Every structure is written in structure tokens, then in C-alpha cells.
Amino acid sequence: MAKKLEGTERSNALASLIGWDELKDRNAITKNYQLSDFNAAFGFMSRVAIKAEKMDHHPEWFNVYNRVEVTLSTHDAGGITQLDIELAKFMDEITT
Ligand code: HBI
Fold it and tell me: Does 81 contact ligand 1 (Cβ within 6 A)?
């Protein structure tokens, strides 16, 4: 199982992400993506879904039209792990 990131390892990993915020009430990170329209948002979600299945690591998300609000956390580990960092970076790569 992926190891929960703590201390400097955790802060360094979070510092390597752009535009992601920590949630106040749980050990998780969040980012709001705004795509051009629903087609782009759904395309983004489809690509992430394929990656998530390959990783066996899945996002929590909420979509309205062109907006996708994403939360990442590793439930099995009870916090943020390298899997969340990897998935966050993948999402950023395919949107920039
Ligand atoms: N996705 N975000 C997230 N966190 C998990 O702990 C997780 C997951 N997807 C699948 C998964 N764990 C499996 O290991 C089992 O819990 C089914």
C-alpha cells in the first residue's frame, strides 16, 4: 500500500504542485479546473478516468458544464500519498 506522506516529504511534494490547495477539514488536496465547455471537461475526465484505472487510484470529483472540482486523497492510507501527487501532475499535464 502507498505510504501516507508526512513532514518534509509531504510539504515538498505539495510544493511541487501548482494550483492545488490543502483541504482544511481532511488530509486531501483540491483543485478546480475550468475547461472551455462540457465536451472539453468530459474529455479531461475521460483521460483521467483511464489513468486512474491504470493506477487503481481514483479521484473524487464534481462536474458542472465546463467546471471540474477535484479532490485527491488516498483512502486506504488515510491521507495524501505519492499516488495523489502523480495523479495531480497528470491532470495538470493534460490541461496545460
Ligand atoms: N482511490 N483515491 C483512492 N484511494 C484509495 O485508497 C483507493 C482508490 N482506488 C482504488 C483503491 N483504493 C483500492 O485499493 C481498493 O480500496 C479497492
Answer: no
